[in-house]
Amino acid sequence: MWREALVLFQLLTFAQPLSAQEDLSSAPITPQKCSLQCVRQGGAGCEYCRITRDDVERTLGFHSIEAFGSCIPWPCFELLGEEEPELCKHYVQAPDDVRVEFVDDQNPTSDTIVVSWRPSYYGIAFLRGFQVSLQALGGASVGCQLFLFHRNVSLPASHAQRVYKSDPFPGLSLGSQYAITVMALPVPEKWDRFSHSKIFSTRPCAEKNGLEQCKNDWYPKHIEVQQRGAAITVTFNLAPPNLGISSYFSLCYANGKKKYTKITPNPTQNKTHHSFQLKELQEGINYTCEIAANEVDAVRKTFSVHVLHINQEAHLPLTTAPSLALLLPLCLVGAAIFIVLLAVLTWRRPKLWMKTLDIGPDFMKQHQESGSPEEVMPLPRSRSTPPRLLICYSSYDGPAHVKAVVQLGAFIQKHMATQVSLDLWDSLSMAEEGNMAWYCRQIRESNFVLVICSQGLSHRSQPLPPEVEDEEVQLSSAAAIHLIGEEVGRAKALNRDLSKYMAAIFEYSKETDIPTELRLVSHYTLTRDLPLLFSHLHEVSLHRPGGYLKISHITEEGFKQLPAGMALQSALHEAGVAQRERGHCSVEEEEKD
Predict the structure, then answer these.
(1) Are 32 and 52 in contact (CB under 8 A)?
(2) Cα separation, 154 vs 498, whole angstroms
(3) 25-203 and 219-310 agree in CATH topology
(4) How far is CA 442 from CA 411, 423, 484, in A?
(5) Residue 528 CB coordination number (10 Å)
(6) Which of 146-155, 556-565, 579-588 has the lowest mean pLDDT?
(7) Per-residue b/e over 323-353, b at no fewer than 16 CB within 10 Å?
């Protein structure tokens, strides 16, 4: 028995250092502070070193390193290949699992990141180091870091599970996009799989510091609307005093008309809330309003205002009160007599019908009990803000098709309680951000993305027609549609929810115009399927047992009674005529050939 106990004790004794070694190997490896000379000599304590700009300049003997930050492209031959050129002649594949981590710092106006990655299995025995470069999208290089192993290292394949880290990259602008590239060294001249790039966005100011500390990101959170007679009063919360916001504005729009209201609160009266009145709004109209700080690029808070009809009878003079009091008993007596007569007629009429049609009372009773009258369901208000919808389209079908898309976006925004994003409506932001960056941000921030498919969508690789004015914008739109198709395919492969993406065609297009990658998502024919699109955007069911959702102005016939619906119908008719003429001309050209 004592022998078994001794063997067990020895196993436990040897297992403790082994488990500690495994934990040590699984911990991330951070750069060491050592010199390039130590790396080249293979000294102790130089296993994984960050090489500074001064070391590279002293070794290479020139001072043009500023163009590359603290490293230069493919430095293995220059830095490690003098004594043993064979060190830098093998293939090493790109690192895997590149990740970006945010580091807490004290600067509220910028972000700091640290990059981590794993080396690849392929060529790991010849791995000499890594090069990590950071670049702002659409801008110049921000920084570059060079990491080298000592010259005597030869990593086994098991070290591909280790995680290597970079030094911090500080001073990154908040709410901006960057591209990080991790390169494995050495890099052969003809090899395209040596680097791994990743695009990421830094945190916005509100996420890092809180909304109450960000002037550009602040917006009113609490808005209350009250109507008393003809007066409509709006109350909202003011910005904190430390932001220095002294004025605000409100913008209400409906039926193509806008109403601008400038708001200047008095801080001596109330420092937390302020109330103002909306004037000159029409009765019985639903208005979509926005309120924001009177600052450049301020975030706007959207709310709805329904102007009720004013009851004129409520403003009658009080002298009529005695006459109403005298008439009230007479009205009650008349109403009682009317109810008795109505009950008698209701009781006798089914008997007369049954005699005339020779239908038994049992059958009528069963029919009445089996029927369940449907009730109209109210629209649930589960969202505090309207959903955001990005509409993408192709301009290869001409200006008439583009006009139809614009009118569709206007109708959806005015009468379907949805905030629409369209490239033609936001040309200023596209000029500031860049076309492709604008599309990427809209796809990321929108709740839904709707792709209007047409015949020209399948000809994205062909030259643009001469009537298309802004070629750069339309090429960016085609690239965005291709990007959406890739996102749909990736989400389908990972078994993710596809409800964010939708495809639609107008009635003059065909279902075959929908690309293959977009047939995985819900697709609609407009304007026939406007109720289905509304159901998708607001995540409500059109029917349920005993009830249905009825919105008259989005039915196939009801939308034509609205000005925006009439404009949409006219634009669709013009686009259909232009589409048929274009098809006729193409047939004639083929016959001539």
Answers:
(1) no
(2) 46
(3) yes
(4) 20, 10, 12
(5) 12
(6) 579-588
(7) eeeeeeeeeeeeeeeeeeeeeeeeeeeeeee
Please choose, from the candidates 204, 217, 182, 16, the residue with its C-alpha nearest in 3D space to the C-alpha of residue 99: 182
CATH topology of domain 25-203: Immunoglobulin-like (2.60.40)
CATH match of 388-585 with 3.40.640.10? no
* CB 174 within 8 Å of CB 205: yes
393: tokens are: 């389209």
Q: Is the pLDDT of residue 371 over 60?
A: no
- Give the pLDDT of residue 170: 92
Q: Containing H/E element for 143?
A: strand 141-149
Distance between CA atoms of residues 111 and 203, nearest Å? 7
Does position 101 have pLDDT exceeding 90, yes or no? yes
The answer to whether 211 and 218 have CB atoms below 8 angstroms apart is: yes
Measured in degrees and rounded to the nearest 5, phi and psi for residue 276 equal: -145, 165
Location of structure tokens 């026939």? 528
Contact (CB, 8 A) for 177 and 137: yes
Q: Kindly report the average pLDDT of the chain as a whole number.
A: 76
Beta-sheet pairing, 448-453 with 501-506: parallel
- 10 Å CB burial of residue 24 (0-12, 13-18, 19+) is exposed
Q: Where are the domains of the chain?
A: 25-203, 219-310, 388-585
Statement: 219-310 belongs to CATH 2.60.40.10:
yes
> In terms of residues, how long is the chain?
593
At 490 the three-state DSSP class reads helix
pTM score: 0.43
Tokens 């080298």: give the residue: 148
pLDDT of 204 strictly over 70:
yes
How many other C-beta atoms lie within 10 A of the C-beta of residue 474? 21
DSSP 280-304: SPPTT-EEEEEEEESSTTPPPEEEE
